[in-house]
Amino acid sequence: MKPEKINRIKLASAKALFFTIFMLLMNALFAYNDNEIEKVYKLKFYLFGVVVFFVMFLINYFTDSKNPTWSDVLNKFKGKNNGK
């Protein structure tokens, strides 16, 4: 693989991991009592965290701009570059 592609993968996964950890920490902050939350809910939440990680990874990997919009992401998937 090209070095720039490896760097994009590293950067996208770092951003996605930061967002996912932040989301999980916020959940732990607001739901600190284990008796209030069922184990099924916790499992669903962590699976949701995995999904969020991959969505954030794809958004960060396929966009070059610092503030991507959904149209930028969709255009990257369609193969359009918007003049970049």
How many domains? The number is 1
First-residue to last-residue Cα separation: 22 Å
Radius of gyration: 16 Å
- Fraction of residues in helix: over 70%
Number of helices: 3
Low-confidence stretches: none
Report the major sheet: none
> Approximately how much beta-strand content do the residues carry?
under 5%
Structural class: mainly alpha
Shape: elongated
Tally of DSSP β-strands: 0
Q: What's the mean pLDDT score?
A: 71
Element pattern in H and E: HHH
Features:
single chain; 84 residues; mainly alpha; 3 helices; elongated; membrane; Putative membrane-anchored protein; transmembrane
Please give the structural blueprint:
Blueprint: H1 3-30, H2 39-62, H3 70-78
Structural notes for this entry:
It is built from three helices and no strands. With 84 residues, it is mainly alpha-helical. The chain has one domain (3-78). The longest helix is centred in the first third of the chain and has 28 residues, at 3-30. The model has no long low-confidence stretch (mean pLDDT 71).
